[in-house]
């Protein structure tokens, strides 16, 4: 067979018989020794298929309709092939298939189109490999990139093949000046754009990374956590408003368990189990990483859980942080505190400052690996060592 010619063949999938005794007909396109097989959506009784003539037999009204459908598919593939031949760019069998389906060829795929393909694909993995929050960040990332393209290019989209170093440099500038994003947020936003480019490369829409020369500056923000004195001040403060008392209790509970908001808000008595040591442990699956976490139920955390009969009050993360700011102002702590500060406090003040090893902290927090823990808390451990050894210098 001439490699430059297109071969179209219909194949009967005899091992896939439906309840009506019919098999699906698939189409195989071959071009440049590369094949693409796809379903036609047509089913036939295997006894009525003539593979030599590529037609349904014997002649009757039903088989005539079926043969006409197959003929139309053949014609549409031929048309797609001819349309690609008159273009100056090289193409492959996947491009022929996309053209037949009415989709963009690789040369025509845009960055927003790549976002759409990525987001459609990963949406099916929600609850399996990723959580909805992680997925929604790529939806938001697409929105930001679309705003940038409209602002800087006065266009609706940009083809992947037209992307260059200047594009991402301008995008970074846009994030900083137009959207007023903090450096840490800019870094994460750029990383998501680069993730889409890597997706496009893996899907063969791009051959090389147009941003490979770009150096994304990682910003290490200082970890905000409560000291032992600050935590004690919150614990011992009396609140006359029940809403503040409840928020204080939930915050302190998380300071002694390290639970993130998602885990705290879904915690039930079913998550409390007797461990190997005969003591109570919180057993949960961390939504962010999908890892199982086992957290010892410390006395102060247990007392709060008992106070609320094993079911902590339910409140949105936004309202929680709003009420928490009131508490911080009343107690007199000059720090920007959110619910997540409780998790940082648990890792630093409750665990690391009391001699718990980094490996154990990593396991309790449910980090994907110890490198994540070291990146977050390594500096704190160094400071603790420095403080303890200062008398020797």
Automatic annotation (TrEMBL):
Entries under CDD domains matching the protein: INTN1_C_like
PROSITE patterns with a match to the protein in the record: TYR_RECOMBINASE
Domain Tyr recombinase intervals: 221-390
Gene Ontology annotations of biological process type: DNA integration; DNA recombination
Segment forming the signal sequence: none
Matches recorded under InterPro entries: Arm-DNA-bind_5, DNA_brk_join_enz, Integrase-like_cat_sf, Integrase_catalytic, Integrase_recombinase_N, SAM-like_dom, Tyrosine_recombinase_XerCD
A molecular-function term among this protein's GO annotations: DNA binding
Alphabetic keyword roster: DNA recombination, DNA-binding
Keyword ATP-binding included in the entry's annotation: no
Classification via Gene3D superfamilies: 1.10.150.130, Intergrase catalytic core (1.10.443.10)
Keyword Aminoacyl-tRNA synthetase: no
Entry's family note: Belongs to the 'phage' integrase family.
Record-given protein name: Integrase
């Amino acid at each position: 067979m001439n490699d430059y010619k297109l071969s179209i063949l219909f194949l009967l999938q005899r091992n896939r018989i439906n309840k009506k005794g019919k098999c699906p007909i698939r189409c195989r396109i071959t071009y440049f020794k590369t094949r693409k097989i796809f379903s036609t959506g047509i089913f036939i009784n295997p006894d009525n298929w003539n593979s030599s003539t590529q037609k349904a037999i014997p002649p009757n009204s039903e088989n005539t309709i079926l043969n006409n459908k197959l003929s139309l598919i053949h014609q549409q593939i031929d048309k797609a092939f001819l349309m690609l031949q008159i273009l100056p760019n090289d193409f492959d069998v996947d491009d022929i298939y996309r053209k037949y389906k009415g989709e963009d060829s690789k040369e025509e795929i845009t960055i927003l189109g790549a976002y759409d393909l990525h987001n459609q694909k990963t949406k099916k993995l929600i609850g399996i490999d990723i959580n909805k929050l992680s997925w929604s960040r790529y939806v938001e990332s697409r929105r930001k990139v679309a705003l940038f393209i409209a602002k800087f290019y006065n266009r609706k989209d940009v083809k992947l093949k037209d992307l260059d170093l200047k594009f991402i440099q301008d995008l970074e500038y846009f994030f900083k000046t137009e959207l007023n994003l903090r450096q840490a947020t800019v870094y994460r936003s750029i990383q998501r754009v680069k993730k889409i480019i890597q997706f496009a490369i893996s899907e063969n829409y791009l051959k090389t990374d147009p941003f490979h020369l770009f150096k994304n500056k990682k910003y290490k923000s200082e970890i905000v956590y409560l000291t032992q004195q600050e935590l004690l001040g919150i614990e011992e403060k009396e609140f006359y408003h029940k809403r503040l008392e409840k928020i204080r209790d939930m915050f302190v509970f998380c300071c002694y368990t390290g639970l993130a908001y998602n885990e705290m808000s879904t915690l039930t008595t079913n998550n409390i189990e007797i461990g190997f040591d005969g003591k109570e442990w919180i057993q949960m699956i961390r939504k962010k990483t999908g890892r199982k976490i086992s957290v010892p139920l410390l006395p102060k955390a247990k007392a709060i859980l008992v106070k609320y009969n094993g079911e902590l009050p339910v409140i949105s993360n936004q309202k929680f942080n709003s009420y928490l700011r009131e508490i911080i102002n009343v107690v007199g702590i000059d720090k920007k505190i959110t619910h997540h500060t409780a998790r940082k406090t648990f890792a630093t003040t409750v665990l690391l400052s009391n001699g718990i090893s980094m490996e154990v902290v990593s396991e309790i927090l449910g980090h994907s690996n110890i490198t994540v823990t070291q990146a977050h808390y390594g500096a704190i451990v160094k400071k603790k060592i420095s403080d303890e050894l200062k008398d020797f210098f």
